[in-house]
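User: I'm writing a short report section on ligand binding and want a predicted complex to refer to. Could you take this sequence and glutamine and write out the structure as tokens? A short remark afterwards would be nice.
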Amino acid sequence: MSFRTTPPETSSTPGLQAVTGATEPPALTSRLPEVGTTIFSVMSALAAKHAAVNLGQGFPDFDCDPGLVDAVTAAMRAGHNQYPPMPGVPALRQALSAKIERIYGRRYDPDSEITVTAGATQAILTAVLAFVHPGDEVIVLEPCYDSYGPAITLAGGRIVRVPLNPADFRIDFARLQEAITPRTRALIVNTPHNPTGTVWPAADLRALAELLRPTKLLVISDEVYEHMVFDGQRHVSVSSEPGLAERSMVISSFGKTYHVTGWKVGHVAAPAALMAEFRKVHQFNVFTVNSPMQHGLAAWLAEPSRYEGLSGFYQRKRDRFREGLAGTRFELLPCAGSYFQCVDYSRISSLPDHAFCDWLTKEVGVAAIPLSAFYADPPQRPLARFCFAKTEATLDEALRRLRRL
Ligand code: PMP
Ligand code: GLN
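Assistant: Sure. The structure tokens for the complex follow:
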């Protein structure tokens, strides 16, 4: 079967199907044959169907600050409703540059080194498409966020999966070293980590910089949970690490930081030469990102207390959720950052994790995400992920249900 590029001879209207003759459908050869609907969509739909408390897909169930909505509304009323510049609204890029320099100590030029994206997802895909050639190898550290693998596949790259150390979900440097070949183009890292809540210490980033020093690898650093780090620790950005910053695309998301996941606005910072390549793809991928949100966020970003309080805010939620589960048969894994809490449920059920999360949603009324969704080759340990970015009332209702187990 082939895709017909000219209309059938019997059709008198070009482009329209002939009324009498059958037409052949386009030949479908999936670019992502292994991929179905993301687990986040699947579990949210299941939660809605069964009126379960949705601790699956990662998003807050509370609203953003009304002042941020006011700032966006003001931008719309001020007429910021046409295309902004391709890399993003200058005021937002300037505010981001100042913020990154203040927190992480590296200055990115707002004109040539910062681009506003349609969420972190687009930034990741665009970075991969910009740098990965067919046949290139790209290393991901498993478990990892579910968009990394398909992005690499769409670029024609080969996914090379290196497991994080199963005991603490930190980098296994020996295995990483072994995985690097002359074909390796890039490495994707993520701290604070989804799904495990691990936060990499500065020593790990330093060790990574050392390991990569003799190579030409690009690093794509997914730091969307940069402002959710607990117990007095600090997020160490790849942008603050000499030896890594020069080779890295550093990605974050306003969706996480300001409780606006539905706005889909993120950003990427990188040295100018890398950013120039990124923008070549970005301009044909989305061209630019919606204007009023960018203006509103630019005004909002000027006040550091709006993100500096986030770790404490989420730490209180983490603590409430962990304390609530303390007397149950769930075994709680450490959670040093992000808004995810992983649990080992082997004392409760012997079901595989997809079946367990299905059962938990339908029968117990709490949705969670099976950890195997973040692996190609999942380990045996039965783990599920709960999102605690929820109101106290939601968390308490979920805990009431989970404590019966
Ligand atoms: N990376 C990670 C680790 C995430 O958890 C998410 C989404 N929650 C994203 C990227 C995508 O972020 P965005 O919604 O801004 O596209
Ligand atoms: N990143 C969110 C999570 O891990 C979900 C984002 C999405 O639904 N694509 O739950």
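A remark for your report: The pocket of glutamine (ligand 2) is lined by residues 38, 40, 57-58, 194 (CB under 6 Å). The first strand starts at residue 53 and ends at 54.
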